Automatic annotation (TrEMBL):
Upper lineage: Bacteria, Pseudomonadati, Pseudomonadota, Gammaproteobacteria, Enterobacterales
Gene3D superfamilies: Periplasmic binding protein-like II (3.40.190.10)
Entries under SUPFAM superfamilies matching the protein: Periplasmic binding protein-like II
Native organism: Rouxiella chamberiensis
Annotated protein name in UniProt: Substrate-binding domain-containing protein
PANTHER family: MOLYBDATE-BINDING PERIPLASMIC PROTEIN, SULFATE-BINDING PROTEIN
Highest taxon of source: Bacteria
């Protein structure tokens, strides 16, 4: 049986393994996947690690590999956006998402820019806020805490959702992360999930870089209607 080696963005973990099992059943090809912040995974590939396919939480990293001649093909296969997770016992129920971010006593946690696309998207959100609310976005850029997704970030305990764990452990009162986690976060009794208005939100493009011809069947699989629908049900798209 052919076995493919894949590096995939950590935010894909909840849905990726069931998708890869469906792919194995239909193609007879096994997929071994290592998850992590997409920026750090790209660095591993650039440093010579051999992989068949890289599934990134942004388009820029796969395009960089294509420009370097490391990737053969790049395609966007799904989308994401941002949401805000807050601690129920430390953030008033009547505060809207922007009120939370503007509150001087609320520490805002994020992923790490450059290492993790979620952090890059969050900085884009701050830029969008700054355009309408002068000084607010800039203050957030200066005070936000990059708590996960970096090369030296503390590991999220097994079985924990990063946003819930960070606010539960008192590392921040609010965390900006991917909306694909919203359904799972809603099941946590000690946090609330707030939507970020579309006018400010960021469209996160997820793209794969096919790095070897033997990964072509997997590339085609990721673009099928069935996969797109499964990702949509999981909060993507």
């Amino acid at each position: 049986m052919t076995t493919l080696k894949v590096l995939a963005a950590g935010s894909l973990r909840p849905v990726w393994q069931p998708l890869m099992e469906s792919f194995r059943q239909s193609s007879g090809i096994k997929v071994l996947t290592d998850f992590g912040p997409a920026g750090l995974l790209r660095q591993r590939i650039e440093q010579g690690e051999r992989v068949d396919l890289f599934a990134s939480a942004n388009l820029a990293h796969p395009q960089s590999l294509l420009a370097q001649g490391v990737a053969q093909r790049v395609e966007v296969f799904t989308y994401n956006r941002l949401c805000l997770t807050v601690a129920k016992d430390r953030v008033a129920d009547d505060l809207l998402w922007l009120d939370v971010l503007r509150h001087p006593d609320v520490r805002v946690g994020t992923s790490t820019p450059h290492a993790d696309p979620s952090g890059d998207y969050t900085w884009q959100l701050f830029d969008n806020i700054e355009k309408t609310h002068a000084g607010v976005g800039e203050r957030l850029r200066q005070t936000a805490l990059p708590l996960v997704g970096g090369p030296h970030s503390a590991a999220v305990p097994p079985g924990e959702l990063a946003a819930a764990w960070l606010v539960r452990s008192g590392q921040c009162e609010a965390f900006i992360g991917y909306a694909s986690y919203a359904r799972r976060l809603a099941a946590c009794a000690d946090v609330r999930v707030l939507d970020i208005a579309q006018a400010y939100n960021v469209r996160a493009e997820y793209a794969f870089a096919q790095c070897h011809e033997r990964a072509a069947p997997l590339s085609q699989f990721l673009l099928t209607t069935a996969v797109r629908e499964r990702l949509r049900l999981e909060g993507f798209g």
